[in-house]
Amino acid sequence: MAARSRMRELGSELRATPFVSMLPNETFIEIIRLASADSDGWCDNTMVLARSMGVCRYWRDLIINTPLLWTRIELSNNTQYIRQFLARSGSASITLSCPYLRRTRLSVLAPLLEPHYARVARTDFRFFDDEDAATLPAMLSSFLPCLASISLRLYSFITLRQRYCMRLESRHLPSLRSLSLERFTLDLTPDFPLSRLVTLRLSLVDLPGDHQCLVTFLDMLEACKSLENFSWGKSGFKNYCELCEHGARADRIIPLHQCSPLAGYTPL
Predict the structure, then answer these.
(1) Distance between CA atoms of 246 and 232, rounded to whole angstroms?
(2) 93 to 97, 99, 237: CA distances (angstroms)
(3) How many folded domains does the chain comprise?
(4) 208 and 253 fall within a common domain
């Protein structure tokens, strides 16, 4: 008798609506979104979404019809998946990233991505060498009205090679607020709105041509009046002897009132 009663209880529990299905849609979507991003910020969420959609039809329909879950696009994925993400993200802003972006890959994807450039809000790319990085200007020279964050890292194993010069123009990037570069030469147009940058992270970064001096770096930093986050690694501003030629004061102070404590600090 007790066994039958227990079986009825178990049957009722199995037929009951799972607790997760009783969550508000917004809460459920946030759980899936957090589960699809790892601690390093990379966005290969294809497997998480695929497994979640396989749980039940309700989950599948909810995930497919939520553009927010399809906005983080990993460019190393199969082209079919990328096309699917672009379609299901609708008109929402998108993030493009790739742990090791090769020039052949970007050239293949360019025709697929170009119609969606107006929706790109964040890029996070890593390159093997400057030849791979040389494919990026085609994208950054396009009008990217929503692009607020650029993160580029160049893993060059040829240390004697001149670092690739990344030129950024204000007319192409009207919404840029965060800039993070590693192993690049940074070339900004004279009208580039440094005052709008909120985050600036530089590591092993040079300035182009004759501007390789601490004075130019301090001038650039002083123009960043809205900075809240600033960090740098050991940069390429080597010609400190030019300080005397420029007549710079030894006690020059750059106020960064809004900045949080410096992260990743390496003394110049």
Answers:
(1) 23
(2) 14, 20, 36
(3) 3
(4) yes
Q: What is the pTM of this model?
A: 0.77
Answer with the one of 15, 45, 65 that is the final residue of a domain.
Answer: 65
Closest CA to 98 of 41, 172, 182: 41
DSSP 128: S
CA-derived radius of gyration, the chain? 24
* Model pLDDT for residues 76-130, shown as the tens digit of each residue: 888 888 999 999 999 999 999 887 766 667 777 888 899 999 999 999 988 776 6
Give the amino acid at 244: C
Contacts of 26 (CB under 8 A, 6+ apart): none
- Asked if 254 and 222 touch (Cβ cutoff 8 Å), the reply is yes
Give the number of other Cβ atoms within 10 Å of residue 175's Cβ.
12
Contacts of 223 (CB under 8 A, 6+ apart): 194, 195
Which helix (H) or strand (E) segment holds residue 11: the answer is helix 2-15
Q: Tokens 């992260």 sit at which residue?
A: 263
What is the tens place of the pLDDT at every residue in 127-182?
776 666 777 777 778 889 999 999 988 876 544 445 677 778 888 899 999 999 88
| Residues 97 and 125: beta-carbon distance below 8 Å | yes
Query: Residue 31 contacts by C-beta under 8 Å, 6 or more apart in sequence?
Result: 23
* Three-class secondary structure of residue 220 per DSSP: helix
Q: C-alpha angle 132/135/188, rounded to 5°?
A: 105
Residues 81 and 56 in one domain: no
The whole domain housing 60 covers 1-65
